Amino acid sequence: MNKIEHIGIAVQNLEKANLIYTQILGSEPYKTEQVASEKVMTSFFRCGESKIELLAATDETSVIAGFIQKRGEGMHHIAFAVEDIEAEMNRLRQAGFTLLNETPKPGADNKLVCFVHPKSTNGVLIELCQERR
């Protein structure tokens, strides 16, 4: 794992959250993107070498909608940049971690992603991110 790629924050209202994080970080989001497969709209902010990703549900059946309903708004996941996502997935599987994806899938911000179940990581949802080539 190379670095923290981003921290994902689940929000109810993306426009309102964008205003809040624009004030906090002193800059506007550099990208807003819909991820139809996950039923979310995302905004990305730069924060040094890392990023903040705001995630808002576009459908009541999305994982983010369920997360907010169960836990409220707040930190959803921490993402780590990796060079070879399949190798990292294999390494973590062999170490006994439970992955939520059998294979990498397309994610936001031109990434291939895989999630590690929070039950095997002390309650924190971990995302592996590899830049798509």
Report on the structure:
This protein is of the alpha+beta class and 133 residues long. The chain is built from three helices and eight strands. The chain has one domain: 2,3-Dihydroxybiphenyl 1,2-Dioxygenase, domain 1. Strands 2-3-4-1-5-8-7-6 form an eight-stranded mixed sheet. A hairpin with a 3-residue loop joins β6 and β7. It is globular and about 40 Å long.
Helix count, per DSSP? 3
User: Quick one: overall form?
Assistant: globular
User: How would you classify the helix and strand content by structural class?
Assistant: alpha+beta
- Under CATH, the topology can be stated as 2,3-Dihydroxybiphenyl 1,2-Dioxygenase, domain 1
**Superfamily (CATH H level) name:** 2,3-Dihydroxybiphenyl 1,2-Dioxygenase, domain 1
Ranges where pLDDT stays below 50 over 5 or more residues in a row are none
Distance, first to last CA: 18 Å
- List the domain count as a whole number: 1
Sheet-strand content, in percent, reads 35-45%
Protein name: Methylmalonyl-CoA epimerase
GO molecular function, one term: methylmalonyl-CoA epimerase activity
InterPro entries: Glyas_Bleomycin-R_OHBP_Dase, MeMalonyl-CoA_epimerase, MMCE/EMCE_epimerase, VOC_core
Pfam family, one: Glyoxalase_4
List the keywords:
single chain; 133 residues; alpha+beta; 2,3-Dihydroxybiphenyl 1,2-Dioxygenase, domain 1; eight-stranded mixed beta sheet; 3 helices; 8 strands; globular
In short:
With 133 residues, the chain is of the alpha+beta class.
List the helices and strands and how they pair.
Blueprint: E1 3-10, H1 14-25, E2 31-35, E3 40-47, E4 50-57, H2 63-71, E5 74-81, H3 85-94, E6 105-107, E7 111-116, E8 125-131
Parallel strand pairs: 1-4, 5-8
Antiparallel strand pairs: 1-5, 2-3, 3-4, 6-7, 7-8
GO molecular function: metal ion binding; methylmalonyl-CoA epimerase activity
Organism: Adhaeribacter arboris
Protein name: Methylmalonyl-CoA epimerase
